[in-house]
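Write out the 3D structure for:
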Amino acid sequence: MFKAVLFDLDGTLLDTLTDLADAMNAALVRFGFSPHPLDAFKHFVGDSVETEARRALPESARDAETVKKVASLSEQFYDEYWHKNTKPYPGIPEMLSAVMKRGLPMAVLSNKPDRFTKIMVEALLSDWRFEMVMGALPDVPLKPDPTSSLDIAKKLNIQPSQFLYLGDTNTDMRTAVNTGMFPLGVLWGFRGKDELLDCGAKAIAETPAEVLDVIDNHLE
């Protein structure tokens, strides 16, 4: 029986791909590397800015210093770019309102830097109440490590097993499994059905409305 919902942000609540890609491509070009098409970033993003930079760089340029420089510059560009195209996916506003109506506390957990995570939720999702909003913090392991998701469960005083975890990547599904939450994979984000199922998804939602069906099936 679900008593709370924990959401991933990028690729789950917000369509951030174009702005993420533009920021990283601008950083790559500044350092003399070739940019990538938009679809490539569906497999680059989701596991920290440095991981995105490493994946986007040529294999011959993935040394620690270059990765750090490109990631840092990408974050600087993202300061300018994050709001240009980013918006909630179709159906997300209605889904969030329906979850609130059902009385389920909501929280957000992202591998995006904490500063950006909080700014974006405040700017684009302020019509809905989130009990906690957490992004990547120094010295705190990133998803799929369960440290942050367990912390959210503890602070909400709700057992992990009573959380629905909604996400769009293998990282999200593994986070849910590692935390003991119910992993629900979504298909409107960055990755495909097979990846989600292979990494532990117990259900798949093709649309935000189907998320509500899963919730209602676990409230009866």
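The domain at 4-15+87-217 is CATH 3.40.50.1000 (Rossmann fold).
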